[in-house]
Amino acid sequence: MNPSDRTIVHMDLDSFFVSVERLLDRRLEGRPILIGGTSGRGVVASCSYEARAFGVHSAMPMQLARQLCPEAVVIRGNSASYSAQSQKVTEIIREAAPLFEKSSIDEFYLDFSGMERFFGAYRYATELRQRIRRETGLPISFGLSINKTVSKVATGEAKPNNQMKVDRGFERGFLAPLPVQRLPMVGQQTYKSLSELGVRKIQTLQEMPVDLVERVLGKNGRSLWEKARGEDRSPVVPFHERKSISTERTFDRDTIDVHRLRGLLTAMTENLAYQLRRGNRLTACITVKLRYSDFDTRSLQERIPYTAADHELIPKALSLFERLYQRRLLVRLIGIRFSELVGGGHQMDLFTADQERLELYKAMDQMRNRYGDRAVIRASGLEARTIGRSNPFNGDPPPLLANRRQ
Amino acid sequence: MKFIVSSGSLLKQLQLAGSVIQSNNALPILDNFLFQLAEGKLRITASDLENVLTTTLDVESDSEGEACVPARILLDTLKTFPEQPLTFVFQGEAGVEIASDYGKYSVNSFSASDFPRVAALEDASLTRMPAHVLFSAIQKTLFATGNDDLRPVMSGVFFQLSAEGSTFVATDAHKLVRYRRMDVQSDQTAEFILPKKPLNILKSVLPLAEDELELHYNNLNARFSFGGFSLTCRLIDGRYPNYEAVIPRENPNQLRIGRSEFLGSVRRVSLFSNKTTHQVRLRMAGSEMQVSAEDPDFANKAHERLHCDYAGTDLEIGFNSRFLTEMLSNLETETVRMEFSQANRAGLLTPEGSLEEGEEVLMLVMPVLINQG
Known about the structure:
Chain A is of the alpha+beta class. Chain A has helices spanning 16-24, 49-52, 62-68, 79-96, 121-136, 148-158, 171-175, 188-196, 202-207, 210-217, 220-228, 258-278, 310-324, 355-371, and strands spanning 8-13, 33-36, 44-47, 73-75, 100-104, 107-111, 140-145, 163-165, 244-255, 281-292, 297-307, 331-343. Chain A folds into 2 domains: 8-145, MutS, DNA mismatch repair protein, domain I; 244-402, 2-Layer Sandwich (Dna Ligase, domain 1), CATH 3.30.1490.
């Protein structure tokens, strides 16, 4: 198929977390709302349009946001109810779209290519949007065009609670007058490099020679340049395999309490190992990450034989931590990641008597499946109160936590 | 020193000896064959310091002497010749000249005194066994050896010789094979672990051997010899794990099944399993075994039903299909037996019938943990 014959719709739930909170509590309607970490180091994960009027935006430190908008309602957020609502929307889209990609908890790409012949794709998308609003009560916007990039930008332009179609062949003209930050690939760093070149509008980027863009931005330059010109051949991918699972914790107050750090690491490893077993996965690579109070961030990883057993993972995590924690400095963040995941169960060994331990994990996992994943935990990890609890292996993108960065 | 030899039979012996030579040697002299000529016989020796292989062939000559000849170039050249007589003339410092029907070739040669000598086996014990017995022992066990550098003893085959019989064991901690020969006895009781490399060489050369071979061994080395062939190898140092202790004694769940049907099913179904872990699930109930696998990442799924004789409680157990296919294809009988105690204990696999007198094969395979579905 010719790439310009495709029809791609990008759907995005407007200020999703806020909308869900408003569903749960109608009194929040029309008021400025901040959702995110409420402690000293929390950042804004989502904020209502009313709050945005005060200059608040997501990823802003919560304390700053509260200063800018003192009358805002601050909510800690509950990822379980967000996931549940997101799931509802996903089900509606699954029913309606022949091919779709859930790219984050509140964003979807739908491939309507070839449907023009039977229905107007724009009309169909409009009806779908109305259906989602009617059935879930959540405001949602969409953009429609020939590819993912242009549709996403169009959604951004349409928001809040609206829709937009970019006609075939007008992609370049549509993007030209917009500021470069609207392009999905342009983050802080790229924006800085482009600003230094004097590039503000997408049009300037469109007219630049591609070699120059590549020289400034490296190998991503060409792809950004193509996207700026409204060219994007990336397909809609229905399932994203999880390549790794991880969890990390930033302390409210930096700590040097090694005992506590070890306990937290144990709890995090134990929880991730449970996630692995629940998803019937094994890991072959374990990484421990540490950030000191001066933001010096270090990580250390090691390859291991495929496993999902606590008694193999926890000692490995702790020994990596011992090797990593060399500076006598306060610690700001600690994290752990399992990568190189494969599907399968633990291969038992003839000569290590681990049957009983494996039986124990099985029993503990059953209790967790039934009563929640903190139903039974190692005492050394008791202090760690909140660590991720979603199922990482259902093909959904990881839920965004409070420290999301845009 | 000069001799005339058939190119084909020389190549055969050189290729055999060449299997010992490593690709990157610490000692450059080990890139050579040692040629020793005496009384119309050419002895060819190759070594990697741990293994020394010597083979002999008849040549036409009335001189004697010894020299080292570069292995790679000699092998590569000989491979290109059709069968024909070759003349080797050693000219001391000037190297060796080879004359074929097509022309003449010269290569450097080195003094034989630089080549490391085979250490004599001190206080060696001797056991004789039929070549075909050792061959089947290697064939039955070698595949089950491990590759884990952290467990070097498992990278070899464990030999146990005694007056009651001989036992050969290999395991990689996930699967295990115990091959017993009650008909091959030894005066002394001895145990040693033989590394993989010499076993692979023996596997290729033993079919050529007739009758008995001699096995000399002490606690460091072992030497296998027959006819003009001898292979001396260093043993693996270490204690072999107590494998008898991990063979489950009480196995109330008993399965009898056609080997090729079972193997075919596992092979087919495993194509649908995860490409890294190769896990399949067996479910036994009544007179039926179900073999299934799935790989959710690619939405692959397979499920088969097989007829079998099963006596025991309903059981669901997971295995790495690689282990099952390796083990099943290593057996020859029409029917095999499997025995289980529980889903998290080792399963036993044994052939049923048509083994040689005094021969006994037992295989063990450790399951993988599966989520009860």
